[in-house]
Design a protein that fits this description.
Elements (H helix, E strand, L loop, with lengths): L3 E6 L5 H17 L13 H9 L3 E7 L8 E10 L21 E8 L6 H10 L4 E6 L4 H9 L3 E7 L5 E8 L4 E6 L5 H18 L15 E7 L2 E9 L9 E7 L6 H17 L3 E7 L3 H5 L4 E2 L4 E3 L2 E9 L5
Parallel strand pairs: 4-5
Antiparallel strand pairs: 1-2, 2-3, 3-4, 5-7, 6-7, 8-9, 9-10, 10-11, 12-15, 13-15, 14-15
Amino acid sequence: MDVNRIIRDAKPTDMAAIMQVMEAAKKIMRQSGNMHQWGDGYPSEVVITNDMEKHGGFVIEESDGETPSTGRIVGYFAFLNSPEPTYSKIYHGEWLDDVKPYHVIHRIASYPDVHGIFSDIMDFCFSHDANIRIDTHKDNRIMQYNIAKHGFAYCGIIYLANGDERLAYQKLNNELVLHQKSFHELTVDELYELLRVRSEVFVVEQNCVYQDMDRDDQKSIHLWLTDADRVVALARVCPAGTHMKEISIGRVITTVRGKGYGKQIMLHAIDAAVEHFGATRIDIEAQEYAKGFYESVGFKQSSDTFMLDGIPHIKMTWANITDR
């Protein structure tokens, strides 16, 4: 039986089901090492009721498509109009835009066996507003992963009314598009543009003469982000036994810096490695100066420094040891 998912306004009669979802979300937090967020009975029924009264409380409900009123509530979130009082001051950074009205997303919660909830929420929210802010606890790695994957830019630190610190993000929907294809699905124009960008950055910009077209492309998954049809980031995912012994990610490029596009394409590449090749481990040959960047998406150094095409590199490894 097919299961459909709908997002609708939360109702007072949903409260018991919503609180069960909240408890499940707290359990996920604790299991992933986030021991401090949502303590002391938060979010309470009073908080959820306040969301509803502001017409900003929403439930995600699964049904068989025939009787939606009897569906199971599997998620909850708040989607509220600005201004958000705790966002009036931001420290160690600034908002992408601090003039236009915005919406804020709070209290995202779901059951651990229900996947894709964050994407469903983003689709819903960005269908209502193109300017959205969100925050999360520094220990909430799962939420940080999803926020970055969906194109939010880290803006700085905000403080809640009780003084707790939160990492703050904002996204202005600029029609960024993710493309993902196998080599044989690429059009001639797409292949030409990917190779052109790779040559422009790795050969010309880095002044490095090397063989870019190495015959690994034919077996790889190719990903790239475009903004108004311009390539702003790209990467490829190679199966085991091609570019490296293990499944690997390479040819990682951002043509527009400072927008978080590099992190986005890496997170999508990791997902592609898992989806297409069943990856539980991914290796990369990283230029040594970029170690911090790759650490930010879960890679750890796994070799000493070595020279590759005249540039210092290190091997780094990602292992799927957490439930994302």
